[in-house]
Write a structure and sequence with these properties.
Elements (H helix, E strand, L loop, with lengths): L7 E4 L8 H9 L5 E2 L3 E2 H5 L3 H5 L9 E6 L3 H10 L6 E8 L4 H5 L10 H13 L4 E5 L5 H5 L2 H8 L5 E4 L16 H5 L5 E4 L5 H9 L4 E4 L1 H5 L3 H5 L9 H11 L4 H10 L8
Parallel strand pairs: 1-9, 2-4, 3-4, 4-5, 5-6, 6-7, 7-8, 8-9
Helix pairs in contact: 1-13, 4-6, 13-14
The protein binds flavin mononucleotide.
């Protein structure tokens, strides 16, 4: 486990949105570290070109690559050929994706129950000396949360840090994230990053007082990428952010879906799902 000295502000992985250009903009406006959208390790192991394109870095924005998968063989096959680019800061394992197809395949949120499997996968990254973190929900369903299954993973797995999205798998965004879980998560002695509905300084003060080592912000950063600076008490002009972002999507020659999804929400008051 690494020692996290500074309270960190992280940009969340958001599929079809957090491309390199968006990560660069959030970094410029105060995010300390950013994450790729989820990348299927099966696609990487099978040399799928579209999957590999998610790992193209065009600058040195600090970025963690988020991987989704459950088969050790695919992780090993991918790591044998992976070469880090500038900006690469490690890997993150997705234990939170609530998509029913992903859960049926025993991946994403289903992995919260697969503790020894998760530990084996984390160890593969450690063998290569890569930084490895986990992003998780509180369980697959309310029953898992009541059984506090999330504490079992925190106890049994030794990752650099754990991003805890304070909802369980079957919970939608209409229900609030439950910040009351962080106290007991922190007591497990691991580096905990809080995630879910975070957008105000008051929330951050509360979470910091609970001992979390940082916060991860997703939808609020899509609405306003300068939220990181704002939460750090740094003023930034907002009028150029959209054009800076659009310039980067062209410079990096990114697929149109990214700019379509980001421009739909940037500058709006709320992100509706
Ligand atoms: C459209 C959409 C796509 C997402 N894609 C991913 C993903 O690829 N990987 C992941 O771990 N979480 C993903 N998430 C979850 C976010 O990373 C984050 O945990 C969640 O939105 C709660 O944080 P927020 O309230 O700050 O947005 C996604 C969320 C949304 C709304």
């Amino acid at each position: 486990m690494i020692k996290m000295k500074k309270f960190s502000y992280m940009l969340a992985p958001i599929e079809d949105m957090t491309s390199n250009s968006f990560r660069t903009i959030c970094y410029k406006y105060g995010a300390d570290i950013t994450f790729t959208e989820l990348v299927s390790v099966q696609g990487l192991a099978k040399k799928n070109k579209n999957t590999w394109s998610r790992l193209d870095f065009h600058d040195d924005t600090p970025t963690i690559i988020q991987l989704l998968g459950a088969k050790e063989a695919y992780f090993k096959k991918f790591l044998r050929v992976f070469k880090p680019s500038a900006g690469f800061k490690g890997f993150n394992l997705n234990l939170g994706c609530p998509d029913p197809e992903i859960i049926k395949a025993g991946q994403g949120c289903a992995m919260i129950r697969r503790i020894s499997k998760t530990r084996k996968i984390v160890d593969i990254f450690k063998d290569y000396k890569y930084n490895i973190s986990i992003k998780m929900r509180l369980g697959l369903n309310q029953h898992d949360k009541e059984k506090k299954i999330y504490l079992h993973i925190l106890d049994a797995v030794d990752a650099d840090f754990f991003v805890v999205h304070a909802r369980y798998g079957t919970q939608g965004y209409n229900e609030s994230a439950d910040f009351s879980v962080y106290d007991e998560c922190v007591k497990m002695g691991k580096n905990i990053i809080a995630n879910g509905d975070i957008k105000t300084k008051e929330q951050i003060d509360f979470l910091r007082d609970n001992g979390v080592k940082g916060v991860m912000i997703g939808r609020a950063a899509v609405l306003d990428p300068s939220i990181f600076n704002t939460l750090k008490g740094i003023y930034s002009r907002k009028d150029k952010i959209l054009s800076e972002y659009l310039d980067l999507t062209e410079r990096f020659n990114e697929p149109l879906r990214y700019r379509k999804n980001i421009t739909k929400w940037m500058g709006k008051d709320s992100f509706l799902i």
